[in-house]
Write a structure and sequence with these properties.
Structural class: alpha/beta
CATH class of the largest domain: Alpha Beta
Strand content: 5-15%
Oligomer: single chain
Order of helices and strands: HHEEHHHHHHHEHEHEHEEH
Strand order of the largest sheet: 4-3-5-6-7
Number of helices: 13
Shape: elongated
Number of domains: 2
Largest sheet: 5 strands, parallel
Radius of gyration: 22 Å
Low-confidence stretches: none
Amino acid sequence: MNAFTIKDLENLTGIKAHTIRIWEQRYNFLKPQRTETNIRYYTNEELKTVLNISLLNKYGFKISHIDRMDAAEMQQRILQLTDTQAVQERNVNELVQEMIDLHVDNIDRLLGDHIEQKGVERTVLKLIFPFLEKIGILWLTGHINPAQEHLVTNVIRQKLLVAIDRTPLPVNPKQQVMLFLPEGEYHELGLLFLYYLMKSRGLATIYLGANVPIKDVAYVVKLKKPDIIFSHLTSTASNFSMEKFLNKVSLHFTGTPTIISGSQTLYYKKSIPAGVSFKQSLAEVMDLITELSLKS
């Protein structure tokens, strides 16, 4: 059983901690336990309950009405929500709940069904990214076992790999992009999605993967001569230095434009070497891919 703090519930549901405390006082659906130092903590089931309640409350149901529902009626009401945003949030919440219970087959089925109905790109943008963003706080605070993280990310990774494999190779492309993650960066999902986007839009791609030493990247650059080098930094190792990484990129990739995206670029305030540029949002990355695809 995981033990979640009231702050975890706030981050996952969007419901303020003081509102959750008021609900506890007035209604019966939440009964947190307390540590020896009198700090509230919540079980898996209570987290799932608050996710469901916050969704119903956001889309028109009064808390007093929800409090009178049993579990079956609550689930029925959730399934009856038809607003597009509500359906998206329901799907994200369902993934969170299945992850908490380690129901890997259900996660695989949910993602597979969504990809079949909506396509890979929409599934990533509207379901997988919001899901990863929502549970990121649990990874950071240690309230998700590493096994849960690995199981979930591996299911998503497999879906992306299948989609990439099924995408036809470009015919006579004029632009070639090489993608890699530097040493200490193992979070591959963002880069894999960019790989899919580029390949699906007719760009030739060389995918080196995660945790690649700069000297090895430089060797491939010398042989294959890509038009652009691309890296996406999500969560690097504690000893990773962005400044040293950028200096190595500038030294080894002279003459080849290098683009870096991802959350790590948002916090870097020093000067960026010549030949290197940042893309600090998904919109900027998408615009770049569109620009490159038009050249192809």
